[in-house]
Write a structure and sequence with these properties.
The chain is mainly β. The protein has one domain: YVTN repeat-like/Quinoprotein amine dehydrogenase (Methylamine Dehydrogenase, Chain H, 7 Propeller), CATH 2.130.10.10. Helix content is 5%, strand content 53%. It has one helix at 300-316, and strands at 2-3, 7-11, 19-24, 29-35, 38-43, 47-51, 58-63, 70-76, 79-84, 88-93, 99-103, 110-113, 118-123, 126-136, 139-147, 164-170, 173-178, 182-186, 196-199, 205-212, 215-220, 225-229, 232-236, 244-250, 253-258, 262-267, 273-278, 283-287. The strands form 7 sheets. Strands 1-2-3-28 form a 4-stranded antiparallel sheet, with no helix packed on it. Strands 4-5-6-7 form a 4-stranded antiparallel sheet, with no helix packed on it. The longest helix is centred in the last third of the chain and has 17 residues, at 300-316. The radius of gyration is 20 Å and the shape is globular. Residues 1-18 and 290-294 have low confidence and may be disordered.
Length: 317
Amino acid sequence: MLLGSATSILQLANNESKEIFVGDKTEGTSMILNSSLGMISIHLNGHIRIFEPLDYTIEDHFILARSDKLIGCFVVDNNLVVCSATGTVSIINVESGSTQTIELGYPLLVMRQYKNYELCVGGEEQDVRVLELVLENDNWVQKQRWKAKNVPNDTLDMRVPVHITEIQVYDDLIYTGTKSGRVRCYKPYTQRKPLHDYSLSEYPILSLHVMGNQAFIYSDTDAVVGYFKQGKIMRRYKGIPGSILKVIEKDGYVYCAGADRRLHVFKTESAELVRKVFVRVPLNSLALPLDHVEEQHEDPESDDELWADLKNKKQKQ
């Protein structure tokens, strides 16, 4: 089912209230998340939709004046905080519909909520930092509270490039993924250098899901999805032909959404593939308000739909 033009909603389990929300890359969905206001989808054209997950009705629809690529969003109190790739932070009051913007003055690739009105941002030659949004005389301003320090020079005494591709927050820790395939863990306000620095891949990190201290699921541009724990890669989840742009772990299952137009579901510990759902379009975002999945090793109807879809396209050509 399509909501508006960019958010697909899939039924994965028998329980009708257990659903998966995925973002359609071809229609410009930048991010989809579950929040206290409902499900929120943000789009590359500046549209933001808040909808009720039970009946899919759109509760609110905001359009930002600028059409920059939106890279992050979170809800605090009754405010919707959205950040663009050009470094524009928009604070939207959902009740009044009023919007205030703050120009950070530098480009970004990722924005996530840290705590309350604090956000962490990063990008190319922009190491991760924590900013706080403060209301002064009815105007929002930002104040930098902490910034990471780059790692030491490499073995050739060359400066290590800064290129943050992913950020995830776990308790008071910040995990970052980089273009060089590294994952670093920071503890803001305690020290600027990373607590841990792991080399996981030769390819850029696309997505992280942190499960605990030094335990996380990651994906890279080489279609690798791995489970890292206690300083080593415990296992890899195989059978995925394309890059995975979003991974989530919940209740012993790993959910992978990506370019191959399928949603893959694995058991976390055994790496067994339990479900594969064909959704017709490349995916780049995922939200999971569900508790369990129904185990199913194959989805033959999905493969039939894929071949039928390819056959129809060939006939049109």
